[in-house]
Amino acid sequence: MATTVTGRTSDRSGRIPVNRILRAGLVAAVLAAIVNGIISQIARALLDAPDAFAPLQLPAVIFSTVGFILIGTLVFLGISRFARRPVRVFQIVAVIALLLSFSNPLFILNSTSDRFAGMTGSIIAALLLMHTAAAAITITILSRTGRE
User: Fold this and answer.
1) pLDDT higher for 63 or 114?
2) Is the pLDDT at 60 greater than 80, yes or no?
3) Which of 10, 21, 78, 130 would you call most buried, defined as having the most Cβ atoms within 10 angstroms of its Cβ?
């Protein structure tokens, strides 16, 4: 039975219902995969990214976007079970995770490996934009879910 607690619909314990979090995570994953797919295709067309560069290929973009957002959703689910202010805690954790996620594209930019030959600042900026877009979509959707 649902009751209203501090302006949000929740169960008797004040927790956010699991099915609502999972549904919101799925919506965030689909929306972010679409947005990142569009960004990756524009970046490939405009920035002359090497065809072999997997992080801008559509299957890799969709798989990694959906995978990491589902992990983020599970993190929010865990936080919502233990934190008094789950939305705020999740937002802090998510921003930290976003900043940590920037390390991989920045590593690619500074790599001397032949695997990453031809990488430019613009290509890396596209990857950073994709990370930021996915995070913004996920943080927004899951935060609203926690406040409903």
Assistant:
1) 63
2) yes
3) 130
Average pLDDT over residues 141-148: 86
Structure token pair of residue 66: 């959906």
Using an 8 Å Cβ cutoff, are 144 and 87 in contact?
Answer: no
Please state the domain extents for the chain. 18-147
Which residues is 5 bridged to in the sheet? 8
pLDDT digits (tens, 9 = 90+) for 85-110: 999 999 999 999 999 999 999 898 88
Within 8 A by CB and 6+ apart from 64, the residues are 55
φ, ψ of residue 5 to 5 degrees: the values are -125, 120
